[in-house]
Amino acid sequence: MASAPVVRFAPSPTGRLHVGNVRAALLNWLFARRHGGAFVLRLDDTDRERSTEAFAQGIQDDLRWLGLEWDRLERQSARFARYDRARDSLIAAGRLYACYETPQELEFKRKRQMAQGRPPVYDRAALKLSEADRARLQAEGRTPHWRFKLEPGDVRWADLVRGAQHIDESSQSDPVLIRADGTYLYTLPSVVDDIDFAITHVIRGEDHVTNTGTQIQLFTALGATPPGFGHFPLLTDAQGAGLSKRAGSLSLLELREQGIEPLAIAGLLARLGTSDAIEPVGALAPLIESIDFGHVGRAAARFSLDELRALSARTVHALSYAAAHERLAALGADLGEAFWMTVRGNLATVADAATWAAIVRGPIAPTVEDVSLLRAATDALPTEPWDSGTWKAWTTAIGVATGKKGRALFHPLRLALTGREQGPEMAGMIPLIGRAKVLARLRGDVA
Ligand code: GLU
User: What is the pTM of this model?
Assistant: First the structure.
């Protein structure tokens, strides 16, 4: 990369982030970090009715939780004066023109064009209005909306993900940039910001491919060189349907409450639909190293919550004590490194460690299945100190004394000492539980 890239993630604060839209944040962030560039968080909050400060804060919380810190934060609501200047310059250059048609009139034109077998492209009737026509329409109480005058012909760009692209702008309607109530649609503020913040690459979902030709023309009309563009396929559910309907249930907030690991979300979203293997990562660094838009396939990437859960569990199984211990402390389940290393392989979520901490600490009600075996086990119980070899020595001695082996030997011990059918390796568990509680539980006492 010639110079350090500057990229942006531009959510509207009209909801929380979900797996679909956070993918854009992640891919931009990874790209910036990979190439030593900058990541701008831009809040597209021009829609003052639907945008809220709570969502703006929520989006920032979600990004921080994933580990995606931004280098610069911008809010479009603070930049209206700048958009107005851009508007005025476009009007002066004859690239932005006032239109007075009502929605009903436009609908009528569209229907007529379709009936005549013509494409429903705006006919630019407003360009033919005289000064007097405009004065009359304004006197009728009409306020104009404003369209950007496209130049005819092909717009081409080399898409980072899709390769060579072109859009014939002659087949497009001149896009409305400003509504009749004076509010800006997304296009003009977005392009002005991309110019002012020196964005080098616009990386976003495929749903924006159709906007790109217009935006490239707008960059040029505003005297700027267009940035590079990259459009990645959108995520779908297992049936191939869009994810937006399920956005609520797939919000980061919801997934976080379910105990899903942020690194599992990042690992899955970075590599889904690419040629790179999806595997647990202990940090974002390996994802930064492997990010390459050339590895992103053209087909929609299928997202599965089950796949995410499974990856999250595998992420927990590999989580170091250093990474886990603060969260264990917050759960009241920090019993030290040996405890974590013993239980982590049996957890679906870090929060599940609390169950095993409670079992180690007691009191629990043991399940007594084979009284004579437990008596023999009591007789053979070694004195402390105990270590990871104690279990083997102890159960070997019980086996010799009782003639039992396999499940008949191990299952009653596990039931008595943990009250559970299954769980972490007993070799790790008994030193944590300690001799006094082991003795009591072998007797069937609550301890
Ligand atoms: N606010 C726009 C969106 O969320 C940004 C699109 C873009 O990246 O240009 O769709």
Answer: 0.93
